[in-house]
Every structure is written in C-alpha cells, then in structure tokens.
Amino acid sequence: MANFYTDNPVLKHYLTHPMMEKIVELKERGYADAEQYDYAPQNYADAIDSYDKVLEIVGEICGETVAANAEGVDKEGPRVENGHVVYATGTAANLEACRKAGLMGMSMPRRYGGLNFPITPYIMAADIVSRADTGFENIWGLQDCAETIYEFADDAQKQKYIPRVCAGETMSMDLTEPDAGSDLQSVMLKATQKEDGSWVLNGVKRFITNGDSDIHLVLARSEEGTRDGRGLSMFIYDKRNGGVTVRRIENKMGIKGSPTCELVYRNAPAELVGSRRMGLIKYVMALMNGARLGIAAQSVGVSEIAYREALAYARDRKQFGKAIIEFPAVSEILSNMKAKLDASRALLYACSRFVDIYKAYDDIAKERKLTVDEKKESKQYSRLADAFTPLAKGMTSEFCNQNAYDCIQIHGGSGFMKDYACERVYRDARITSIYEGTTQLQVVAAIRHVTTGTYLNWIREELAKECKPEDQDTKATLEFMSQQLANAVEKVTGAENPEYVDFMARRLVEMAGYTVMGLLLLDDARRDDSFRRSLRVFVKYGQAEVAKHADFIANFRIDQLDEYKVD
C-alpha cells in the first residue's frame, strides 16, 4: 500500500528536529491536557509518537485515495448547481476520508475538538496532501482559517465555529474582488450594521478559493465614506444562513479540483470579528501569513511529486541502449531538482518552527503574563517568522515551478501529453508563485529584513556553529556568499535612494535566500549524512546565482535606472 509519509523518511527528520522539544512543551503547557483527555500526550516522546501516527494516517489516505483520485478530479472538476458548488466525485470522497480520519482542525485546541498539533506537523500534513493532489490541499488546507477565529474572535464565536471545523466543515477566506486583487485596501464589499446591531454584507467577491465553503472569513468595508484599509473589518459568514450564491467557477489552467468562485452577497447575515477597522491592518495580515506558509508547503509537495515523476521516468526510459538517467545532462537536471526540493523543505520547516514558538507564546500570553525572557524570545521568533515567511513562500514556489518545468523536460515529448501525470503537475505548479501574494510581493515583504540585517544576523549566527570536517569547504563557500550579500546590501543601501533599493530588491532577497537555504542544508547534514549530496549541489548552484547578482549590483550605476523604465 502506498503511504506518502512512510515512503519519505526526510519528513521524520524534521518532525524530530531538536527545536521540536521546546515547541511541544510550549504547545502542551507542560502536558496538562493529559489529565483531561485520554488521547493527549503525557511527555515529549508521547507527543512525537502521536504526530507520527497521525501523519502515517495522512500518508495512507493520500497515497491510497487522494492521489488515486487526482486524475479524475482534474478531468471532472467542480460545477455550479442552483448557485452552489458541487465538488468532483473524487474531491467529495477525499473530504469524507479526511473527516472520518479526524484530520480537520488539526492545530485547534482539544477543548474545541481539535488535535492541538503545533504548526510544524500540520504543515507536514499539508506537504503530504499537496504531493497527492495540489488542488485538494486548497480545500483541506483552508481549515487553517480557523486559526484566525481562534486568535481574534470572541469566546462565543470560537465555541460556535471551531468545533464545526474540527468536525469536518470547510472554510474559505473571501478577500479579493474584481477591482481589488493584491491591493486589498481597495475592497468595497459593503458591510452594513442594522438597528439591532447585526450586520449584513452586499457586493461581489472574485477568485475565492473553495468559495462555497461552510464558514467564510470575509473582508468588507464597514465604515461609510472610507476608501482605504482603515475602513475595513473582518466578518464571519455562515453558509447555513444563506445570502451568498456562486455566480460562476473560474475555468483555470490548473488545480482544477479546487473551485475558484465568483460570489454574490445579497444581504448576507454576518458576524463582526474582533474590532472594527482592524480587518486589513491586523486580521488579514495574520491570515495571509498563515496562508503563505501553507502555499510554501504546497510548493514543496509539488516539488516532491515533480522530482519523483522525473526520477521514475529517467530510470525507465531507454535511449541509445541505456536508461536516460545515465546521461550527464539528465542526471544533472535530476540532481538540481533534488537539491532544490531538499532546500525548499529545509526552509519551509525552519519557518514553521519559528511560527510555532512565537504563536505558542502569544497563546500563553492570553492565560498569564510572560516573563521578561519569554517576551524577548517571543519577539525574536516573531521577527524571524516575519522574515522567513515571505522568503519561504517566494523561494519554494519559484523552485517548484522550476522543478515542474524540468520534470516535463525529462519526459521530453511525452511530458507534453496528458498521458503522464507531469503535465497536470506542471499546470498545478504555476499558481503557487501567484496566489496569496505574487513572488514580487514576497520580495516587497522580505526586502526590509535584508536591509535591516535580520537575514545577515541569522546567517552569521549559523556560520558560527561547528560543522563536520567533510563540510568545511562547503561552509567556506557559504561564508563567501554571505560576504557578497553583505557587500551588495552596503552598496545598495549606501546610495540612500528608495527607487534603487526597490530595483535591486529581488536580487538581494534571492542572494539572502540561497545563503539561508544553504546553511539550513548544512545543519541538516550535521544531523544526517544523507543530506550531504543535496547540500553540495545546492550550494554550487546558489554560489553561481549569488555571484551573478553580486556582479550585476557591483557594476550597476544609479543613472542606469531609466533604461529599465517602460513607457
């Protein structure tokens, strides 16, 4: 039987990372739940064993059911009937399997019916699901919206909605509109408060993933006469109350099993979440950071299936009397694919660990006052999470697109045909660098951590650590890359020209990304020798990319900026 968790030992490597002991201790509050819930862990080993068993169930469902249904779902797709979505047959079967296995509300507290998992094993499940069917992860993974309800809603709303998500109801985040894509402060869906204090919503939302879900988080304009982000609030819409219909499902290039909807709100009853005017400024920002980590997991899952499909074909396909994997041109592509996959996964789980620690402290702060040391540590990891999230989303999605491209290339003409899974994987991959903020927007979010030293400070701390003797040369290369980054940052920021910084931002962020990912692989090789090949291949690749950017920046004059402006 296929199991997408047990066939990939790399996942267990990250599940047992040294930082996990601290993460679990914080999440479990000293394992206090063991006294009330018989399925709650009593210690760290018990918790890891629990995560391991659940991930094995995820792996089995994905290997046996979700992956088996993926091709049929891609062909059938969802449809609209009487203003509502009907999922493809395979999608409905996938959801039912996940519900029966209790795989919804994984990160929610046990008192709401959840499993109380840290973010890291939950993201691991998203990684596995994405490998099986990228589009289905969009439906299953939106259970993460419950995190926003848990963080910002009142107790009555938590009690009302979170148990429903844990029981298997689906969610969506209704943010974008026909005239408000990435520019969310332009959202105009109207929220009107009635005399009795209740709210109704009117307007149109577009490009809404899983838009006919059971429970929606909706960004709407609550303040009459405003036109910027300060007039927006967050609302919960319950499908049971009616008032929203699906006008159409978008006809997309890929992720066809995931219904991307245009929604019409007509006096739809809704509940305000938290405070008015904080919808975009606070709540959506938190929601988007979680979504971006989810897309990074999705990207890693796509890279995984792309690499496996390419490897299997290269071993099987014979040309000129031998398997094509024996040709250097092909083996080089495969080596780079594997290195990018491993580097992407290393970055993904580094980011998830940072998120785990600061979110655990945020949650603890609701129960008691944090100590001075705890506040300091919480702030440290919050900053790292803020820096690593756009880096993870940007780098992993670009790499997954490259791996999907190379998967087709390995297949040659056959890869262009629908007879092979790689054609679907290629189409599914393309969206990852677009939704939840394009790669260009991730650069905008990440560049301040380049210019203010967040990445360089982390890099220097990592370089101060010991490595194995056989990795000294690789570490020396990473030290040189970090110096090239530092020099480039100094040159760009020293000009004190914001337009120049914006122009060079992508190059600087990529330089930081290659260096950070190389150091994460160095740490993996310190714990497990099996990472050494990917470490060396990736650092050679990253070295060339960093050198290219460093050369461009060193030889560029500010007066040349006008040459890149298009009339």
Describe this structure in words.
The protein has helices spanning 10-15, 20-28, 44-76, 89-100, 119-132, 134-140, 146-152, 155-166, 279-316, 328-364, 372-411, 421-429, 439-451, 454-463, 472-494, 498-527, 532-554; strands at 79-81, 84-86, 171-174, 190-193, 199-209, 215-221, 232-238, 244-249, 260-273, 318-319, 322-323. The protein is built from 17 helices and eleven strands. The protein is globular. Strands 3, 4, 5, 6, 7, 8 and 9 form a seven-stranded mixed β-sheet that branches. It has a two-stranded antiparallel sheet with strand order 1-2. With 567 residues, it is of the alpha+beta class. The mean pLDDT is 96.
SSE order:
HHHEEHHHHHEEEEEEEHEEHHHHHHHH
Intertermini distance: 58 Å
Content-based structural category: alpha+beta
* Total beta strands: 11
What is the overall number of helices? 17
Net shape: globular
Strand content: 5-15%
- Note the main sheet: 7 strands, mixed
What's the oligomerization state? single chain
As a whole number of angstroms, the C-alpha radius of gyration is 24 Å
Low-confidence stretches: none
Give helix % range.
55-70%
Mean pLDDT: 96
Fill in the keyword field for this structure.
11% strand; 7-stranded mixed sheet; alpha+beta
Characterize this entry briefly.
57% of the residues lie in helices and 11% in strands. It is of the alpha+beta class and 567 residues long.
